[in-house]
Amino acid sequence: MENKDNGLTVSYLDIVGDDLTKVDEHIKNVLSSKQKILESALKELLEAGGKRLRPALVLLSGKFGKYDEKRLIPLAAAVEILHMATLVHDDIIDESKIRRGRPTIQSRWGKDVAVFTGDFLFAKTFLLLAHSTTVENMQGLSKVVKAVCEGEIAQYQSRYDKHVTIRQYLKRIGRKTALLFALSCYIGAKESECSSKVVRCLREFGFNFGMAFQITDDLLDFTGNPVKMGKPVGSDFIQGVYTLPLIYAINSSYRDEVIGILDKEDCVPEDVERVIELVHASGGIEYSKNLARDYLKRARTFIDGLVSIPAKAALQNLVEGLIERSY
């Protein structure tokens, strides 16, 4: 995978890897508690790791202005802690037993501890931000948290709904996922005193990248490697969460057979395999890939005009990497 600007592959880790390590250290220092159960739950959550894409976007966006790691590292940490909080609550709602190949907080400690852990993470997010950013950014984050909650509620309300539309799905993932990517870019650029044009371009890049990211993530429920994903294929639709590939199949000529299987009280492995076959046959996989590519193309247009610095090459590389992932 080569960057078109200079013929070299530039990973975001090449540009902000050292500072991401500092972000991880900051998160570990912040997420401490005298409550033993909470401390154990937080430790397990941190050990599960992650790609740290959202804090990376905070830092990369900051490179387009007056980069100040002392200001940006706490903000990047806050964004990642917020993301962790949404995952904990998401697992409670979906009753997920596994995430990233590990037992979820709720399956390991129970829903009560999981709720407390998620709430603790939200509180830490706002405490970090109160010491690190402007009132304007605090308001922006509050709006994103509100939208994420609305996205989760919309997903819950649409469980097992065979009439959910593509438009409703896109609105849901916009709130649930894309807005936090957009906020990550916005905060990094705004705190680094970028021009209003650069701030807007990076924010729009983040939103469109986030939309593509969620679509490709949903694709993996039908095409992914269960070992790498840390969960079996078909997990989403078994739990009643109907994503883009399946929504497309439900509205295709295969609708009756797909719904017939989904209406069963208990789906056996053969049923799951058949639904995946029908999603492929309907064109749902290819449609979803094409839509993800469209969002990625849109994302790239927002940064094409920005100054050619290593951070730009890293953002372009993220786009190319996600295109490959969607296959």
Query: Count of helices?
Result: 16
Any idea what the shape is? globular
H/E series: HHHHEEHHHHHHHHHHHH
Q: How many separate structural domains?
A: 1
What is the terminal separation in angstroms? 14 Å
How many extended strands? 2
Low-confidence stretches: 1-7
Enumerate the strands of the largest sheet in spatial order, edge to edge or round the barrel: 1-2
Mean pLDDT over all positions: 89
Please compute the radius of gyration using only Cα atoms: 20 Å
Report the sheet-strand fraction: under 5%
Top-tier CATH class: Mainly Alpha
Molecular structure report:
The chain has 327 residues and is an all-alpha fold. It has a single domain (12-315), classed as Farnesyl Diphosphate Synthase (Orthogonal Bundle). The chain has helices spanning 12-30, 36-47, 53-62, 69-94, 105-109, 111-132, 135-157, 166-191, 196-223, 226-229, 235-238, 244-250, 255-262, 269-282, 284-304, 310-325, and strands spanning 98-99, 102-103. It has a two-stranded antiparallel ribbon. A hairpin with a 2-residue loop joins strand 1 (98-99) and strand 2 (102-103). It is globular, with a radius of gyration of 20 Å. Residues 1-7 have low confidence and may be disordered.
